[in-house]
Write a structure and sequence with these properties.
Elements: E1 3-8, H1 14-26, E2 31-36, H2 45-52, H3 68-73, E3 76-79, E4 96-97, H4 108-129
Parallel strand pairs: 1-2, 1-3, 3-4
Amino acid sequence: MKTVLFVCVHNAGRSQMAAAFFDRLAGGQMRAISAGTMPAARIHPEVVEAMAEVGIDLSLQRPKLLTADMVEQATRIITMGCGVEEVCPAVYIPSEDWGLDDPKGQPIETVRAIRDEIRRRVERLVEELK
């Protein structure tokens, strides 16, 4: 089964949204993993709120630490605007970076725009991997 690994520094926003959209859109034919290089204690509340608006509940998800096993399982790795080589080891393996703004602390309107851009990119990715 194809697996896409979505990585951002804290695994509390962008990568969580991308993995949730990917799993929904892939319909069980492929799967997503999300992780971070320095995981936060929880998912950003504004991200949970924005995803709930589109029927996806992230309230029970927890940020996870990126592991070598996750990398080995991945068919594709998408980094989510890590931007800093020192904190994002995913740059040392074949990956694609979606330079997206961090939703942490942003107004809900901004988080919605980030969410919607992630959805568009995930839709294209799912189609490409089919």
